[in-house]
C-alpha cells in the first residue's frame, strides 16, 4: 500500500493550530509559544511529516540546494574537494546534489542543465577546463557559479585554486637541483589551461632557471588513471628522463609501479614529484613526494564564496589563490 503524503495542512489540523504556526515551528521562528511549539513538534513526529523542499523553494524562490559537478567522483583529488564543499554547505544549511560529468564537454552541459532545471541556488564546477559550450551555459544562466580546483583563464567566473604555475616551477626546480637534466612533464590534456598554460609554464620557467633545455620529447599527455601511468613507462624511459613531475597522484602511482616492473629503483635511479598529496601518496612505496594542495580548504572556501554570491554579499575578489608547498617523501633524494 502506497504511503500517504502528510502535508502541512494535516499537521495544522491535528495540532489544532494554523498552517502559519506550523511553518514558523518548522523554520525555527522564535515567535511561537513553547507549549504550542511542543504540541506541533509532537504531531510532526507522530505523523512523520517532512516539509516539501520543492514547494518551499517555489514559494521562496530558493531551494537551499547547491549543485556540484565533479569529473570523477572516484578520484581522490575531487572527492577531497567535495568533502570540504559538503561540510561548509551543511554549516550554512544548504543541501548538495553531486553529479558526475566524466570530464566530457557534452555530458558537462547535460549535467549542468539538469541541475539548473532542479532550480539549484548555485553551482560549484570542478572540471579540467571550461569549454566554450559550458561557458555559454554559465553566461545564459543567472545562477551563480564558482570553480573549485579548476582554472578560468579569462577570470569571468569565481574560482578557488592554488598558484599552479608557481607550484609546478617549485617541483621541477627541486628535481633539477637534485642533478636531473632530463625531467619529464606528465599531465592530462594540454588543451586544459591548468596543464597547457599554468603547469607547463612553470615547468619551462624552472628549466630556464636551471639552464636546462626544453625538449618536447619529455612532454607526455595522459588520462588520469593507474593503467595509463603503467602504459607510459616504456616511452618515459626511452626519452632518457631520470625524473618526472606528474600532475595526478593515481597516474603517478601507475608510473611508479611500471618503473618497479622494469627494475628501476625510485628514487635512486628515477625521481618523482606528484601534485595532489592525496592518501595515495602515503600508501605508495616509496611514499611519493608531492605538491601539497589544501584540497579540503579549496572545497570549503569555494562554497563560502558561492554562498556570498548567492546572497548578493559584497565580494572582495572572485579569484582566490590558496597557499601550497612541496612535501618531500620517499620518491625524491
TrEMBL record:
Keywords: Activator, DNA-binding, Repressor, Transcription, Transcription regulation
Organism per entry: Tetragenococcus solitarius
Role description: Global transcriptional regulator of carbon catabolite repression (CCR) and carbon catabolite activation (CCA), which ensures optimal energy usage under diverse conditions.
Stated name of the protein: Catabolite control protein A
Pfam families named among the record's database cross-references: LacI, Peripla_BP_3
KW Transcription regulation (keyword) present: yes
Gene3D superfamilies, A to Z: 3.40.50.2300, lambda repressor-like DNA-binding domains (1.10.260.40)
Domain HTH lacI-type: 6-60
Keyword Transcription regulation attributed: yes
Amino acid at each position: 500500500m502506497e504511503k500517504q503524503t502528510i502535508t502541512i495542512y494535516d499537521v495544522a489540523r491535528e495540532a489544532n493550530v494554523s498552517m502559519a504556526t506550523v511553518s514558523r515551528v518548522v523554520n525555527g521562528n522564535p515567535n511561537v509559544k513553547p507549549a504550542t511549539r511542543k504540541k506541533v513538534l509532537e504531531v510532526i513526529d507522530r505523523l512523520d511529516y517532512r516539509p516539501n523542499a520543492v514547494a518551499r523553494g517555489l514559494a521562496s524562490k530558493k531551494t537551499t540546494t547547491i549543485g556540484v559537478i565533479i569529473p570523477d567522483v572516484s578520484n581522490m583529488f575531487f572527492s577531497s574537494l567535495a568533502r570540504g564543499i559538503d561540510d561548509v554547505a551543511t554549516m550554512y544549511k544548504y543541501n548538495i546534489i553531486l553529479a558526475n560529468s566524466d570530464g566530457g564537454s557534452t555530458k558537462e552541459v547535460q549535467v549542468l542543465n539538469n541541475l539548473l532545471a532542479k532550480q539549484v541556488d548555485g553551482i560549484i564546477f570542478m572540471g579540467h577546463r571550461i569549454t566554450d559550450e559550458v561557458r555559454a551555459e554559465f553566461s545564459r544562466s543567472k545562477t551563480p557559479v564558482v570553480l573549485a580546483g579548476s582554472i578560468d583563464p579569462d577570470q569571468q567566473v569565481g574560482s578557488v585554486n592554488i598558484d599552479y604555475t608557481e607550484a609546478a616551477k617549485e617541483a621541477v626546480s627541486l628535481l633539477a637541483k637534485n642533478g636531473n637534466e632530463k625531467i619529464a612533464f606528465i599531465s592530462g590534456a594540454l588543451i586544459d589551461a591548468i596543464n597547457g598554460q599554468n603547469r607547463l609554464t612553470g615547468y619551462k620557467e624552472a628549466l630556464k632557471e636551471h639552464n636546462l633545455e626544453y625538449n618536447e620529447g619529455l612532454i607526455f599527455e595522459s588520462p588520469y588513471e593507474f593503467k595509463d601511468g603503467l602504459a607510459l613507462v616504456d616511452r618515459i624511459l626511452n626519452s632518457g628522463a631520470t625524473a618526472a613531475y606528474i600532475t595526478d597522484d593515481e597516474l603517478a602511482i601507475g608510473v611508479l609501479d611500471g618503473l618497479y616492473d622494469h627494475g628501476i629503483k625510485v628514487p635512486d635511479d628515477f625521481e618523482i614529484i606528484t601534485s595532489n598529496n592525496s592518501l595515495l601518496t602515503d600508501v605508495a612505496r616509496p611514499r611519493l613526494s608531492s605538491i601539497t594542495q589544501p584540497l579540503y580548504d579549496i572545497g570549503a572556501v569555494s562554497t563560502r564564496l558561492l554562498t556570498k554570491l548567492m546572497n548578493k554579499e559584497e565580494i572582495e575578489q572572485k579569484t582566490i589563490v590558496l597557499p601550497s608547498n612541496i612535501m618531500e617523501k620517499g620518491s625524491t633524494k
